[in-house]
Specification:
The protein has about 325 residues and is of the alpha/beta class. It has helices at about 15-30, 55-65, 85-95, 115-125, 140-155, 175-190, 205-215, 225-230, 250-260, 265-270, 295, 305-320, and strands spanning about 45-50, 70-75, 100-105, 130, 160-165, 190-195, 220-225, 235-240, 280. Strand 1 (about 45-50), helix 2 (about 55-65) and strand 2 form a beta-alpha-beta unit. It binds phosphoric acid mono(formamide)ester.
């Protein structure tokens, strides 16, 4: 396996299966207390977020501190970005002070622009840049999701049927988790069914990559427009909303309101799933929108484990790219 040292962590397509497996193993060892190495002693991590975050921001800051680093947060209003300083100069200068920059920088109005901004920052930063969610990928979230699956199901986790479903939300959300979970499932050889109403197709670039990766890894990636059918024999039902990539904001709103009655995960979906099936959601969520409250708060819900695992996998990522 190539060293991950000094690599950016922008998207999962940049990594090999063995590298992702290594991160999962290191994160599990850190979580179990078997690896308490202070990999980042004396280093400084900066987090730059232009949009809100609870899990990602806090877990990165705690991860850095637990590994011995100092962590500092910046919002654009405090930086000269607010006076139109370029991303090129911002990244180049920040990287003269910091050892890594964790970035969440996108808005939902122009699909792909957030990704382009992140790539620009990575190109001009002399130090590793980590994607904390852009408008195409959310690699850290999905690595935490696979850590959660492995923890829950053990060595057989790749054989378990994971139904990753579009779910209603009033707000337009990034398709980042969708693209990253397809990518990871393809690379790792997992069994993933992506369900969504017509109009919410994932980006073809990620679909093509995932299908080809699955062909090589022996994984299985399927697509469905019928959530009830998709949930037959599921071991995991994972709810996530994302925006329609080809629609105007107005058309997206029409499509999601029309889809709403059929795309809220409920007990009826678990009745079709395998006994012991679990509910996942990377959060934030609204009870009654993405899923009914009894499912969200029920015994099958493992979304707090999923949230906690952000901390452990991000420690593994930071340790691997910065040690
Ligand atoms: N899942 C996730 O990225 O949560 P935050 O937006 O709170 O960081």
């Amino acid at each position: 396996m190539d060293s991950l040292k000094n690599r950016d962590f922008l998207g999962l397509k940049d990594f090999k299966a063995a590298e992702l497996e290594h991160l999962l193993e290191l994160a599990a060892a850190m979580k179990a207390g078997q690896d308490r190495t202070r990999y980042l002693e004396g280093k400084t991590l900066g987090t730059l977020f232009t949009v809100p975050s609870t899990r990602t921001r806090i877990s990165f800051q705690v991860a850095a501190r637990q590994l011995g680093a100092y962590a500092d947060h910046y919002s654009p209003a405090e930086l000269q970005m607010s006076n139109n300083e370029s991303l090129i100069d911002t990244a180049a200068v920040m990287s003269r002070y910091l050892d890594a920059i964790v970035v969440r920088l996108y808005d939902m109005s122009a699909y792909g622009q957030g990704r382009q901004s992140l790539l620009t920052m990575a190109e001009h930063s002399a130090k590793p840049v980590v994607n904390a969610l852009d408008d195409k990928e959310h690699p850290c979230q999905v690595m935490a999701d696979f850590l959660t699956l492995k923890e829950r199901f053990g060595a057989d986790y790749k054989k378990k049927k994971v139904v990753f479903t579009w779910a209603y939300a009033k707000r337009q959300k990034s398709p980042g988790v969708t693209h990253s979970i397809m990518t990871a499932a393809g690379l790792l050889g997992a069994n993933l069914t992506v369900a969504f109403p017509p109009g919410f197709e994932p980006d073809e670039e990620y679909t093509a990559f995932a299908l080809e990766a699955a062909r090589r890894s022996g994984g299985r990636i399927e697509f469905s427009h019928d959530l009830n059918e998709a949930c037959e024999g599921a071991d995991v039902i994972y709810a996530k909303s994302w925006k329609s990539l080809r629609s105007t904001t107005e058309r997206d709103r029409e499509l999601r309101e029309r889809a709403r009655p059929d795309w809220c995960v409920s007990q009826s979906h678990f009745d079709r799933a395998n006994p012991g099936a679990v509910f996942m959601d990377c959060m934030p969520l609204i009870r009654g929108d993405e899923a009914t409250a009894d499912v969200v708060d029920g015994p099958q819900s493992i979304r707090y484990d999923e949230a906690e695992n952000r901390l452990h996998i991000q420690k593994a990522i930071l340790a691997s790219i910065l040690q």
